[in-house]
Amino acid sequence: MKAGPQHVIVMGVSGSGKTTVAKRLAQQLAWPYAEGDDFHPPANVDKMAAGEPLTDDDRWPWLRAIVDWMCAQAGDGRSTVVTCSALRRVYRDVLGEADGLVRFAYLAGDIDVIGERVGYRRGHFMPVSLLESQFDTLEPLEPDEAGIAVDVSGTPEQMVQDVIDGLELGH
């Protein structure tokens, strides 16, 4: 295991449970937590709220902002937990440029299960209508990428434990 700060990026499509799992993971590990959506510029949020999928040109500054935050935390010797959809390999490659060890916890699930969850959410800018475009864009983790897949059908507690065990984060 590489010494120094680590970053666990909880990834997956909207509604997969990223925020729930990441907050609980960060609390259990006592690591700073960041919600990837908070790094979106207002134009991206407006676009998604209008039902328009983001383009790569929309995403690059957003991903760089997340990397900058992880680097700042690593510079202070802190490991982090971050949520980010990270749907494509090229996005994960950018995120992997952060200082420290970057690994992914991919919350994997069926579109019907996740779609039902998204339908119940209130007050989130991501409409259920964009879920299909996210699944179309999704490139699951490849064997050579640092990370694990976690089944979303478990409870949040089970998913957090799967991340801790799978990434060997236990103390």
Average pLDDT across residues?
A: 89
Fourth-tier CATH superfamily name: P-loop containing nucleotide triphosphate hydrolases
Q: How does the major sheet shape up?
A: 5 strands, parallel
CATH fold field value: Rossmann fold
What spatial form do the alpha-carbon principal axes imply? globular
Structure description:
With 171 residues, the protein is an alpha/beta fold. It has one domain (6-166): P-loop containing nucleotide triphosphate hydrolases (Rossmann fold). Helices cover 44% and strands 15% of the residues. The chain has 7 helices and 5 strands, in the order E-H-E-H-H-E-H-E-H-H-E-H. It has helices at residues 18-29, 42-49, 56-75, 89-95, 111-120, 131-137, 156-166; strands at residues 6-11, 33-35, 80-83, 101-108, 147-151. It has a 5-stranded parallel beta sheet, sandwiched between helices. The longest helix has 20 residues, at 56-75. The radius of gyration is 15 Å and the shape is globular.
Give the structure's gist in a few sentences.
The chain is of the alpha/beta class and 171 residues long. It has helices at 18-29, 42-49, 56-75, 89-95, 111-120, 131-137, 156-166; strands spanning 6-11, 33-35, 80-83, 101-108, 147-151.
